[in-house]
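General statements about sequence and structure are easier to judge against a single worked case. In the encoding step, the backbone of a single protein was reduced to a row of integers, each denoting a local shape. The record that follows shows the chain in one-letter code together with its fold in token form.
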Amino acid sequence: MFRKEAIENRKMQWHGRAILLPGIPLWLVILVSVTFMVAFLVFITEGTYTRRVNVSGEITTWPRAINIYSSVQGIVVKQFVHEGDIIKKGDPVYQLDVSKSTPGGVVSENRRRDIESQLVRVRNIISHLKENKKVTLAMLEQQHMQYSDAFRRSSDIIRRAEEGINIMKGNMENYRKYQSKGLITKDQLTNQVALYYQQQNNLLNLSGQNEQNALQVTNLASQVQTQAAEFDNRIYQMELQQFDLQKELVDTDEGEEIVIRALSDGKIDSMSVTPGQMVNAGDSLLQLLPQVIDHYYLIIWVPNDAVPYISPGDKVNIRYEAFPAEKFGQFSATVTTITRTPATAKEMLTYQGSPGYSSGTSGPWYKVIVKPEKQIITYDGKFLPLENGMKAQSTLFLEKRKIYQWMLSPLYDMKHSATGQVDE
């Protein structure tokens, strides 16, 4: 009874009655199979699918927000503005101390004192030169006037002497006539002739003195011009030295304290540093929002395999991280601008939502500007505006093909890999 064969036989016995169900008719199986195949063939031959790609981007304004950076290393000693202030182009924002100290004191202050003392000496020299020029030219002018007066007097004397000599010459001729008539002696004629030639010699001496006076007047006039030019040249040289010292003084001020100014009009959104902090070259100091915002737009970065299939005016779907698609859904936008050259690494670094900024992935990447149709999101009776830097995901719709073409894409790849040289 407990043999192995008896136990196996008991296990194989049924506990109830077996009921056989009728099978599915063959014609129904064939009908369903044919219907499925026909529907599948119609679906893959007539149906289409548009390839899509999801790209990242960020919201920004037109004009864009401005980041003001420090151009030098220094310590913030003064803050002129605060968050929320409206500022104009050129308004001071921060004052930085960039001076260096040594055991002898602050380098810029010592240099400034030296330059200021040199400027004082140069100004004194210029003042003395101007005073000396004034005195020297006054003396030369006085001498010129004296010699001019002497020249005029000697000219008058010569004119009168010439008149007297002409009279004496007439008398001498008369004496010659008198002597020929025997009215006077020869000695009297000789005395008259000698007196005439003596006066003639005196006239020559006066003429020489007059010419000396004229020459001295000319020399003094030349000396006035020469001395004035020499003094002007020396004053000009000292003024050039003064200008150089003033430039050095400006450079010293630049090496002591500098003022960071706003580059455009706008509203201060945030300030990164406060007085007492040290900043390095390239550190962000504040962010400035444009006072008038024209519109918001989305900057997205598209790979090169998607750029040929998009064009201005195409519609895209946008999903904002700040407004989850599960609650707010997707938003429509329009492509406005597509660059035809890859974006540079430095340009991508200016956008925090760019692939190069976030992950450093290799490109090339093309910048595409998209304008959202809704600039303000309405939720629960509130108006939620878009803000700078909001990250978003965009869906681009690329080429459209039949479904069977997408299914046969691997075969096309195999065909291309097996194809030989292309002659055309």
Observations:
- The chain has a mean pLDDT of 82.
- The radius of gyration is 55 Å.
- Residues 161 and 202 are 9 Å apart (CA to CA).
- DSSP finds nine helices and 18 strands in the chain.
